[in-house]
Amino acid sequence: MPHTGPHAAGHDTGPGPGPAPGATGAAGSPAGQRGVQYHYHRELFPALHDWERTERSIVEFTSEEGPASPGDGGLLGLDQMGHFGPQGCDLVAEAVIAHGAGPLDVCELGSGFGGALRYTVDRITAGGLRVRRAHGVDLVPEHCAVSRSINRAQGRAEVSDICASATAVPLPGASLDVVWVTGSMPHFPAPGEVLREAGRLLRPGGLLVLTEEVSLTPGGEEPSEAFRVTHPRGVFFTTPLADRLRDLERAGFTDVVHDDVTRWAVAWLTDRLKVVRVFRGSVAGIYGAASADLIRDTLDAARTEFLAARLSPALITARRA
Fold first, then answer.
1. Number of separate helices (H) and strands (E) present in the chain
2. Per residue in 269-290, pLDDT tens?
3. Residues facing residue 54 across a β-bridge
4. Could you tell me what percentage of the chain is helix, strand and coil, using 3-state DSSP and rounding each to the nearest 5?
5. Residues 64-88 pLDDT 10s
6. Which of 41, 142, 152, 154 is most exposed by smallest CB count within 10 Å?
7. How many CA atoms lie within 13 A of 246 on its CB side?
8. Is the distance from CB of 193 to CB of 167 less than 8 angstroms?
9. Residue 73 to residues 53, 202, 304: CA-CA distances in angstroms?
Protein backbone atom coordinates (compact mmCIF):
# COMPACT_ATOMS: atom_id res chain seq x y z
CA MET A 1 0.00 0.00 0.00
CA PRO A 2 1.61 3.28 -1.01
CA HIS A 3 1.81 5.77 1.80
CA THR A 4 2.09 9.43 2.56
CA GLY A 5 5.23 11.42 2.64
CA PRO A 6 8.35 9.56 3.90
CA HIS A 7 10.13 10.70 0.74
CA ALA A 8 9.20 14.25 1.77
CA ALA A 9 11.31 14.22 4.89
CA GLY A 10 14.08 16.37 6.14
CA HIS A 11 14.55 19.82 4.69
CA ASP A 12 15.73 23.07 6.16
CA THR A 13 17.49 26.29 5.50
CA GLY A 14 21.23 26.50 5.62
CA PRO A 15 24.17 24.16 5.07
CA GLY A 16 26.31 22.14 7.38
CA PRO A 17 26.17 18.78 9.13
CA GLY A 18 24.48 20.06 12.30
CA PRO A 19 23.44 18.02 15.33
CA ALA A 20 21.82 14.61 15.22
CA PRO A 21 18.07 14.13 14.93
CA GLY A 22 16.34 15.18 18.10
CA ALA A 23 18.67 18.10 18.72
CA THR A 24 16.95 21.30 19.69
CA GLY A 25 16.89 24.37 17.50
CA ALA A 26 14.65 26.98 15.93
CA ALA A 27 11.86 25.53 13.81
CA GLY A 28 13.40 26.72 10.54
CA SER A 29 17.02 25.98 11.44
CA PRO A 30 18.92 22.89 10.23
CA ALA A 31 18.94 21.36 13.72
CA GLY A 32 15.29 22.19 14.29
CA GLN A 33 14.03 20.86 10.96
CA ARG A 34 16.25 17.78 11.09
CA GLY A 35 14.73 16.79 14.41
CA VAL A 36 11.16 17.82 13.56
CA GLN A 37 11.08 15.98 10.24
CA TYR A 38 12.81 12.91 11.64
CA HIS A 39 10.40 12.50 14.53
CA TYR A 40 7.29 13.17 12.43
CA HIS A 41 8.18 10.55 9.83
CA ARG A 42 9.49 8.15 12.44
CA GLU A 43 6.10 8.24 14.18
CA LEU A 44 4.23 7.89 10.89
CA PHE A 45 6.34 5.08 9.42
CA PRO A 46 8.47 3.39 12.09
CA ALA A 47 8.60 0.16 10.07
CA LEU A 48 10.65 1.76 7.31
CA HIS A 49 13.56 2.19 9.71
CA ASP A 50 13.76 -1.61 9.77
CA TRP A 51 13.51 -2.00 6.02
CA GLU A 52 14.71 -5.60 5.83
CA ARG A 53 11.98 -6.83 8.18
CA THR A 54 9.35 -4.71 6.45
CA GLU A 55 10.39 -6.00 3.04
CA ARG A 56 10.03 -9.58 4.27
CA SER A 57 6.52 -8.78 5.51
CA ILE A 58 5.58 -7.25 2.14
CA VAL A 59 6.95 -10.21 0.19
CA GLU A 60 5.10 -12.62 2.47
CA PHE A 61 1.84 -10.72 1.85
CA THR A 62 2.21 -10.17 -1.92
CA SER A 63 4.66 -12.84 -3.13
CA GLU A 64 6.35 -9.91 -4.88
CA GLU A 65 10.14 -10.01 -4.72
CA GLY A 66 12.72 -7.46 -5.81
CA PRO A 67 12.09 -3.86 -6.81
CA ALA A 68 8.63 -3.18 -8.20
CA SER A 69 8.62 -3.03 -11.96
CA PRO A 70 8.05 0.38 -13.51
CA GLY A 71 4.45 1.44 -13.46
CA ASP A 72 3.01 -1.34 -11.28
CA GLY A 73 3.03 0.66 -8.06
CA GLY A 74 3.66 -2.57 -6.16
CA LEU A 75 3.93 -2.85 -2.41
CA LEU A 76 7.73 -2.95 -2.57
CA GLY A 77 7.43 0.71 -3.53
CA LEU A 78 6.15 1.50 -0.06
CA ASP A 79 9.24 3.53 0.73
CA GLN A 80 8.47 6.09 -1.96
CA MET A 81 4.97 7.37 -1.79
CA GLY A 82 3.64 10.81 -0.93
CA HIS A 83 0.01 11.86 -1.08
CA PHE A 84 0.00 11.33 -4.86
CA GLY A 85 1.57 7.86 -4.69
CA PRO A 86 3.14 6.29 -7.79
CA GLN A 87 0.91 8.36 -10.07
CA GLY A 88 2.60 11.50 -8.78
CA CYS A 89 5.97 10.03 -9.71
CA ASP A 90 4.54 9.18 -13.12
CA LEU A 91 3.71 12.86 -13.65
CA VAL A 92 7.36 13.72 -13.05
CA ALA A 93 8.66 10.95 -15.30
CA GLU A 94 6.32 11.97 -18.12
CA ALA A 95 7.54 15.57 -17.92
CA VAL A 96 11.17 14.44 -18.05
CA ILE A 97 10.54 12.13 -21.00
CA ALA A 98 8.74 14.92 -22.86
CA HIS A 99 11.73 17.19 -22.21
CA GLY A 100 13.85 14.61 -24.05
CA ALA A 101 17.60 14.23 -24.55
CA GLY A 102 20.00 12.11 -22.55
CA PRO A 103 21.94 10.59 -20.94
CA LEU A 104 20.69 12.49 -17.89
CA ASP A 105 22.21 13.56 -14.60
CA VAL A 106 19.27 14.02 -12.24
CA CYS A 107 18.54 14.91 -8.63
CA GLU A 108 15.58 14.75 -6.27
CA LEU A 109 15.48 17.34 -3.49
CA GLY A 110 13.75 15.87 -0.44
CA SER A 111 14.32 12.24 -1.36
CA GLY A 112 13.62 10.72 2.06
CA PHE A 113 13.90 6.94 1.87
CA GLY A 114 14.67 7.22 -1.86
CA GLY A 115 11.70 5.32 -3.24
CA ALA A 116 10.31 8.12 -5.39
CA LEU A 117 13.75 8.64 -6.91
CA ARG A 118 14.20 4.96 -7.70
CA TYR A 119 10.67 4.62 -9.11
CA THR A 120 10.96 7.76 -11.24
CA VAL A 121 14.35 6.73 -12.62
CA ASP A 122 12.84 3.38 -13.61
CA ARG A 123 9.94 5.10 -15.35
CA ILE A 124 12.27 7.44 -17.24
CA THR A 125 14.41 4.51 -18.32
CA ALA A 126 11.33 2.58 -19.46
CA GLY A 127 10.43 5.67 -21.51
CA GLY A 128 13.66 5.36 -23.51
CA LEU A 129 15.97 7.84 -21.76
CA ARG A 130 19.14 6.76 -19.98
CA VAL A 131 19.82 8.13 -16.52
CA ARG A 132 23.57 8.32 -16.08
CA ARG A 133 23.55 9.44 -12.47
CA ALA A 134 20.78 10.03 -9.93
CA HIS A 135 21.28 11.86 -6.64
CA GLY A 136 18.86 11.85 -3.72
CA VAL A 137 19.24 14.77 -1.30
CA ASP A 138 17.75 14.55 2.18
CA LEU A 139 18.52 16.25 5.48
CA VAL A 140 17.85 13.35 7.88
CA PRO A 141 20.78 10.92 8.23
CA GLU A 142 18.53 8.00 9.16
CA HIS A 143 16.51 8.40 5.98
CA CYS A 144 19.67 8.46 3.87
CA ALA A 145 20.97 5.33 5.63
CA VAL A 146 17.76 3.42 4.82
CA SER A 147 17.91 4.59 1.21
CA ARG A 148 21.53 3.47 0.86
CA SER A 149 20.60 0.06 2.24
CA ILE A 150 17.78 -0.34 -0.28
CA ASN A 151 19.98 0.88 -3.15
CA ARG A 152 22.64 -1.69 -2.25
CA ALA A 153 20.06 -4.48 -1.99
CA GLN A 154 18.67 -3.56 -5.41
CA GLY A 155 22.08 -3.12 -7.03
CA ARG A 156 21.51 0.50 -7.98
CA ALA A 157 25.05 1.72 -8.51
CA GLU A 158 23.85 4.79 -10.43
CA VAL A 159 21.94 6.16 -7.42
CA SER A 160 23.70 8.07 -4.65
CA ASP A 161 22.38 9.54 -1.40
CA ILE A 162 23.52 12.96 -0.23
CA CYS A 163 22.70 13.92 3.36
CA ALA A 164 22.45 17.69 3.11
CA SER A 165 20.11 20.65 3.14
CA ALA A 166 18.11 21.20 -0.03
CA THR A 167 19.35 24.80 0.09
CA ALA A 168 23.05 23.84 0.09
CA VAL A 169 23.65 20.73 -2.00
CA PRO A 170 27.32 19.69 -2.25
CA LEU A 171 27.27 19.30 -6.04
CA PRO A 172 28.88 21.65 -8.58
CA GLY A 173 26.82 24.37 -10.21
CA ALA A 174 25.37 23.66 -13.64
CA SER A 175 26.02 19.92 -13.22
CA LEU A 176 22.49 18.50 -13.62
CA ASP A 177 20.02 18.08 -16.45
CA VAL A 178 16.89 17.62 -14.31
CA VAL A 179 15.94 18.47 -10.72
CA TRP A 180 12.62 17.35 -9.29
CA VAL A 181 10.67 17.47 -6.05
CA THR A 182 7.97 14.82 -5.61
CA GLY A 183 5.70 16.24 -2.94
CA SER A 184 8.36 17.52 -0.54
CA MET A 185 7.78 21.25 -1.07
CA PRO A 186 5.66 21.65 2.09
CA HIS A 187 8.58 20.39 4.18
CA PHE A 188 10.81 23.31 3.15
CA PRO A 189 10.53 26.32 5.51
CA ALA A 190 12.23 28.52 2.87
CA PRO A 191 11.08 27.19 -0.51
CA GLY A 192 12.43 30.21 -2.39
CA GLU A 193 15.95 29.26 -1.27
CA VAL A 194 15.37 25.69 -2.43
CA LEU A 195 14.33 26.95 -5.87
CA ARG A 196 17.43 29.14 -6.07
CA GLU A 197 19.57 26.10 -5.27
CA ALA A 198 17.79 24.11 -7.96
CA GLY A 199 18.56 26.90 -10.39
CA ARG A 200 22.23 26.81 -9.38
CA LEU A 201 22.43 23.05 -9.90
CA LEU A 202 20.81 22.97 -13.33
CA ARG A 203 22.61 23.46 -16.60
CA PRO A 204 21.17 26.13 -18.93
CA GLY A 205 18.01 24.71 -20.42
CA GLY A 206 17.73 22.16 -17.60
CA LEU A 207 14.32 21.05 -16.36
CA LEU A 208 12.72 21.56 -12.94
CA VAL A 209 9.61 19.52 -12.05
CA LEU A 210 7.54 19.99 -8.88
CA THR A 211 4.57 17.95 -7.75
CA GLU A 212 2.82 20.32 -5.35
CA GLU A 213 0.71 18.08 -3.16
CA VAL A 214 -0.24 19.99 0.00
CA SER A 215 2.14 22.92 -0.41
CA LEU A 216 0.20 25.59 -2.36
CA THR A 217 -2.71 27.79 -1.37
CA PRO A 218 -4.76 29.64 -4.01
CA GLY A 219 -4.25 32.86 -2.06
CA GLY A 220 -2.74 33.65 1.32
CA GLU A 221 -5.21 31.70 3.43
CA GLU A 222 -4.25 28.83 5.72
CA PRO A 223 -5.63 25.30 5.48
CA SER A 224 -8.20 24.30 8.08
CA GLU A 225 -7.38 23.38 11.67
CA ALA A 226 -8.69 19.88 10.94
CA PHE A 227 -5.97 19.55 8.29
CA ARG A 228 -3.35 20.54 10.85
CA VAL A 229 -4.18 17.53 13.00
CA THR A 230 -2.40 15.29 10.49
CA HIS A 231 -0.21 17.99 8.87
CA PRO A 232 1.19 19.91 11.85
CA ARG A 233 2.68 23.38 11.63
CA GLY A 234 6.44 23.30 11.73
CA VAL A 235 6.43 20.09 9.70
CA PHE A 236 4.23 21.27 6.81
CA PHE A 237 4.55 24.78 5.36
CA THR A 238 2.25 26.30 2.73
CA THR A 239 2.98 28.97 0.15
CA PRO A 240 0.58 31.13 -1.89
CA LEU A 241 0.66 30.19 -5.57
CA ALA A 242 1.63 33.74 -6.57
CA ASP A 243 4.68 33.57 -4.29
CA ARG A 244 5.78 30.25 -5.79
CA LEU A 245 5.61 31.64 -9.33
CA ARG A 246 7.47 34.78 -8.28
CA ASP A 247 10.21 32.73 -6.58
CA LEU A 248 10.67 30.63 -9.72
CA GLU A 249 11.23 33.78 -11.76
CA ARG A 250 13.68 35.14 -9.20
CA ALA A 251 15.57 31.83 -9.25
CA GLY A 252 16.22 32.22 -12.97
CA PHE A 253 13.51 29.95 -14.38
CA THR A 254 11.55 30.56 -17.54
CA ASP A 255 8.82 28.75 -19.50
CA VAL A 256 7.00 28.09 -16.23
CA VAL A 257 3.91 25.92 -16.65
CA HIS A 258 1.46 25.60 -13.75
CA ASP A 259 -1.00 22.74 -14.21
CA ASP A 260 -3.84 22.65 -11.68
CA VAL A 261 -4.49 18.94 -11.02
CA THR A 262 -7.29 19.27 -8.46
CA ARG A 263 -9.81 17.04 -10.24
CA TRP A 264 -7.17 14.38 -10.85
CA ALA A 265 -5.90 14.56 -7.25
CA VAL A 266 -9.38 14.28 -5.72
CA ALA A 267 -10.21 11.25 -7.87
CA TRP A 268 -6.88 9.60 -7.15
CA LEU A 269 -7.07 10.16 -3.38
CA THR A 270 -10.62 8.82 -3.38
CA ASP A 271 -9.36 5.61 -4.99
CA ARG A 272 -6.38 5.40 -2.63
CA LEU A 273 -8.62 5.79 0.40
CA LYS A 274 -10.81 2.92 -0.79
CA VAL A 275 -7.77 0.67 -1.11
CA VAL A 276 -6.36 1.74 2.26
CA ARG A 277 -9.67 0.92 3.94
CA VAL A 278 -10.14 -2.43 2.18
CA PHE A 279 -6.60 -3.55 2.97
CA ARG A 280 -6.33 -1.91 6.39
CA GLY A 281 -5.49 -5.22 8.05
CA SER A 282 -2.60 -5.83 5.68
CA VAL A 283 -1.26 -2.29 6.08
CA ALA A 284 -1.57 -2.60 9.86
CA GLY A 285 0.29 -5.89 9.74
CA ILE A 286 3.21 -4.22 7.99
CA TYR A 287 3.24 -0.77 9.63
CA GLY A 288 1.16 -1.18 12.76
CA ALA A 289 -2.43 -0.16 13.46
CA ALA A 290 -1.62 3.42 14.48
CA SER A 291 0.32 4.06 11.27
CA ALA A 292 -2.40 2.47 9.14
CA ASP A 293 -5.01 4.78 10.62
CA LEU A 294 -2.75 7.83 10.31
CA ILE A 295 -2.12 7.06 6.64
CA ARG A 296 -5.88 6.98 6.06
CA ASP A 297 -6.52 10.18 8.03
CA THR A 298 -3.67 12.02 6.29
CA LEU A 299 -4.99 11.21 2.82
CA ASP A 300 -8.55 12.05 3.84
CA ALA A 301 -7.50 15.43 5.26
CA ALA A 302 -5.70 16.36 2.03
CA ARG A 303 -8.69 15.35 -0.08
CA THR A 304 -10.99 17.50 2.06
CA GLU A 305 -8.75 20.57 1.56
CA PHE A 306 -8.67 20.02 -2.21
CA LEU A 307 -12.45 19.81 -2.37
CA ALA A 308 -12.78 22.99 -0.30
CA ALA A 309 -10.23 24.79 -2.53
CA ARG A 310 -8.08 25.65 0.49
CA LEU A 311 -5.12 23.84 -1.10
CA SER A 312 -4.26 23.79 -4.79
CA PRO A 313 -2.54 20.58 -5.96
CA ALA A 314 -0.42 21.18 -9.03
CA LEU A 315 2.28 20.01 -11.39
CA ILE A 316 4.79 22.77 -12.14
CA THR A 317 7.52 22.57 -14.76
CA ALA A 318 10.10 25.21 -15.60
CA ARG A 319 13.29 25.56 -17.62
CA ARG A 320 16.56 27.04 -16.38
CA ALA A 321 17.31 30.13 -18.45
1. 11, 9
2. 998 888 888 878 777 776 778 8
3. none
4. 50, 20, 35
5. 444 443 333 344 344 445 789 888 9
6. 152
7. 5
8. yes
9. 20, 29, 24
